[in-house]
Amino acid sequence: MLVLSSSANVSLLEIQVSDDGRVHALQGELCLSTVDQLRGPLFAAVDDAEGSIVVDLTECTFVDSSGLELLALASWRLAATDPRRELIVVSPRSAVRRILDLTGMDHIVTVRDARPPDDGAAQAERARAIARSVAAK
After folding, report:
1. Quick one: angle between helices 65-81 and 35-48, nearest 10?
2. To bridge 63 with a disulfide, which of 34, 50, 67, 82 should be the other Cys (CB 3.0-4.6 Å)?
3. pTM for the model
């Protein structure tokens, strides 16, 4: 897990990026002064990673219009590369969830209360393990 923060805004936002770049967990505020910290790694994931991208806002306390704009741009860019891919925003905090709902972001990104299950590779491995155990009987 890679942790990104700049010295100027270290107290406002911390970003943890999974090794495959598909999960971005934010802690703090996603606002005008911090949005550029997320832009690079998020767009790199959109361009380079396979499958859907998760932005976990569980520990995010505030999102302003610049943060919403970045999420919308990433979602549209992701859909343009492959309509089956989606930007999944995890946001159980009621204040952030309310912002997403009031602004209509829940129609632009997929909003969930919890992270989606493991990626397809992990699911495929579980299926192979089940098939092996059935075949062994």
Report:
1. 10
2. 67
3. 0.77
